[in-house]
């Protein structure tokens, strides 16, 4: 799995087609998608054009997508990947993830009331996982994994079949995920770091940590290495042997982020950045754990 990929969440329709196209031309070998991002058709166009232009072959490219929360019932899993494959214009994914350990009634994109949710007793993740294993056997995806889960859930899934190959979670200097990373290293699971720049494009809440890109430790390392803050954050993720998927639809920033492959942090830099861990989530799961939800935020990432 290529260590650096292009994120596509909140990549505006009309922009993400060119972003995918540009990234593949610039050398990216990996794109992170999801059905709920509502832009897989456009990403697919960018991929098709890059293949057509000879910038990349399908075999060189690694494409990830994710099963949305309304399709956890085993009978909805295969139709969901088929829709994603159709939208992306691909015959097989490289990696398909269960997006969240949270289930909605079929057809609900974002819940409006308690009735829009299913509990984990009504839609057990273990059953969804068995359906994911069938997708792999059917050749619709090469690998399967999960997102927004921790060691307890990973272990429970392994007990009904195979261990997830990848776990994709929020990870950056303020949320270093050391316990999960140790578990992954022990069980041969790859950790993919999402929101590696602290997701600065998202609407932030009062009381959020200031943007990571402006943190003095990060900016001073960037100055020392003649790099940018974004490159330091991306290089930090790769130096920890995690996969990292910064999102950009801006051609200059897409190239800048790719340039992180040439940035080498020293042990001293890594030690400085290690001190920034606060267990702080920019994406705190509040949107799935408000008063109408049967889920509790503190139990999402177990
Ligand atoms: P990131 O941390 O990647 O930040 C993206 C934001 O940073 C955008 O607003 C982008 O703007 C800006 N940006 C990108 N590059 C630079 C740069 N070099 N300098 C300054 N600003 C920059 O946040 P995301 O939350 O998007 O996370 C990355 C990807 O991870 C997502 O796109 C998605 O694919 C995945 N993800 C998965 C989740 C899950 O539940 N599994 C949840 C969240 C994310 P611009 O586009 O204008 O450059």
Automatic annotation (TrEMBL):
Q: Which UniProt keywords apply?
A: NADP, Oxidoreductase
Keyword DNA repair recorded: no
* Record-linked Pfam families: Aldo_ket_red
> Where does the NADP-dependent oxidoreductase domain lie?
4-277
Name the PROSITE patterns for this protein: ALDOKETO_REDUCTASE_3 (PS00063)
Q: Which GO terms describe its molecular function?
A: oxidoreductase activity
UniProt similarity note: Belongs to the aldo/keto reductase family.
The name this protein carries in UniProt is Aldo/keto reductase
Identify the species of origin.
Persicimonas caeni
